[in-house]
Every structure is written in C-alpha cells, then in structure tokens.
Specification:
With 313 residues, the protein is an alpha/beta fold. It contains eleven helices and 14 strands.
Length: 313
C-alpha cells in the first residue's frame, strides 16, 4: 500500500529524517513511536505531501510523491496534532463546508455526514459551536473532517495528545473501528495506547528506524530476561546481594536507586531466560530473619523497550 525508501528530510543542516525504509500494508494500523524531535511529524508530513523529501521516494499504490502528489493526497485523510477547525462555526456547518470543498453532491454529503456522525459520535453536538466543545470532541470533529472524502489511508499525528483518559479510550475505539476498513498510520508518544491500538509499531529515534514489528515480536527480539524487584527489612545489603546472586538462574543483582527508604534493602534481580525464579527467591529469603516488604516480577514491556532504544536522547 505504502512503500518508503531511503527517505530523508533536512532543515538546513539539521537532519530530521535519515534514510528510512518502511512498508505499510493495506488494512494495517501502524504506530510511529519516538521521543520528541525524533522525526515522526516530518515523516507524516512528507507522506501526506505537506513537505517534499530532501531525498528518497514515497510510493502510495502506483503513485509517486514526486510525480503524482495530487493523486496521493486524494487517497489520504490527514489529521495533524492540532485539528484545523473553524471555531466560530457549528459542527454541522463546518462538516458541510468540508464536504462542499471535497466536491460531494448533496445526496453524498447528507449520507456521509450521517455516517461520520455515527462513527465519530457527533450526533448530539452537530448544532453546537466548535468553540464550545471539549478538546476530545474537537478531535472527533477533526477525525470526521479527515474522513470526509472516504480516503483509503488515514494519517493521524498524535491523535490523543492532551486528552483525558476517558477521551483517549473513546478516540482509540474510533481508530480501531476505522482500522477495520482503512489503512491507518498514527504517531504517538503514549505507549500503552500504541500497544492497545496498533497492529504494528515502528520506533524512530534521531530520524532513524530502530525497531519495527508487533509488540510481541519486539519483546522477543529484545531478549526474554525478566526482572524481580525485592525490598527487604532487617537485611544487610552486602549479604543479600551475595546470597541472592548465588541462586541458579540469576544473571545479576543490583541495588535499586528508586527506593530511598534507608530501613530497607531494595534490589533488582535480572533473571536468565523465561524461568520463573520467584519460588527460589522466596525460599531463600524465608530461611533468614528478613522481612519481605516488596516482591514483584516484570517482563519487558513496550515502555522498557522504548527506553532502551531511545535512552541516548
């Protein structure tokens, strides 16, 4: 559906996007993740034809961004981070105006407005002024705007930025519903949303792709080690470090810096492979007079993978 090859974008001497290769399949919800300044927005703006690449190619179906930019724009609905709305207009008047710009006939317009009102949950606000809407509702109006021409591809730049938890869930549900019929490309820095919404994630850092795959694939590719976090009362740090590191399957033990309680010995155990060592650790602690105040296990999450791959930022 979308094929990007050696795509680069420079702003003067600043390289925002550095020779990235990416393919997006039809019907896929792709999440583009990265820290601020990683190149996400620049990539999306080149994909939508808002910016031309400094070098490289973008192919959407049979069209090239250099030779057929208008045809590509006709295939794409784009919602930037701040939805470009006319705040003095009623929701119905605004969407009707967008339909006229898109060249829809009167019959097509009325049918499309009804469809988008149902899809985006706008039926109860169609005759309210956009200025009076919450940010979440404004974002829904922006989604309806981007979907007005029934595009094959929907591009969303930080669609849940600044929304409260309830609004985030609502927008996520709408995106998942749209993704049943459309190809969706979205950027976000809210990692749980990417994990819950996207079929595939691409992590970009300093203009380059550093990871690409489903969340499960990324977790497996980063190794299967898991961590155990323990906090012990009455334990001497050196003794606890030595004893727990001798447990078979423990790769390393280190003192945790995130716990400031001087009355506790707080440690992080890195365990090899997929073996669950909780029983062995508990048995070792039970043989002492230590009091176990905290005991939890963590496997790799999208957040920990993201931090590992972008920590130089």
């Amino acid at each position: 559906m979308i094929h990007i090859e050696k795509l680069s974008k420079y702003y003067g001497d600043l390289c925002a996007v550095d020779h990235i290769d990416l393919t997006v399949n039809r019907g896929e919800i792709l999440g583009l993740l990265g820290p601020n300044g990683a190149g996400k927005t620049s990539t999306l703006r080149m994909l939508t034809g808002y910016f031309l690449p400094t070098s490289g190619t973008i192919q959407v179906k049979d069209f090239s961004i250099h030779e057929n930019p208008k045809q590509i724009k006709n295939l794409i609905g784009y919602l930037p981070e701040s939805a470009p709305l006319y705040h003095a207009m009623l929701v119905y008047d605004y969407l009707s105006y967008i339909a006229d710009i898109r060249g829809l006939s009167r019959q097509e317009k009325e049918s499309r407005l009804r469809r988008l009102a149902a899809l985006c949950g706008l039926g109860h606000i169609m005759h309210r002024t956009i200025h009076d809407l919450s940010k979440g509702l404004k974002q829904r109006v922006g989604l309806a705007h981007a979907m007005m021409s029934d595009p094959e591809i929907l591009v969303l730049d930080e669609p849940t930025s600044g929304l409260d938890p309830n609004q985030i869930v609502e927008i996520r549900d709408i995106i998942r519903e749209i993704g049943k019929e459309k190809t969706v490309v979205l950027s976000t820095h809210i990692l749980p949303e990417a994990e819950a919404t996207c079929d595939r994630v691409v992590i970009i850092n300093r203009g380059r792709i550093v990871a690409d795959g489903s969340t499960e694939t990324l977790k497996q590719s980063r190794g299967s080690d898991r961590s155990l976090f323990v906090s012990l009362k009455n334990a001497q740090p050196d003794t606890a470090l030595r004893m727990l590191s001798e447990i078979d399957g423990v790769r390393s033990v280190e003192k945790r810096e995130d716990v400031a309680d001087d009355n506790l010995t707080s440690l992080k155990l890195t365990c090899r492979g997929e073996t669950d060592l909780r029983a062995a650790v508990y048995s070792a602690v039970k043989q002492t007079d230590w009091v176990l105040m905290e005991f939890r296990q963590e496997t790799k999450t999208l957040e920990t993978i993201f931090r590992e791959l972008t920590k130089e930022n």
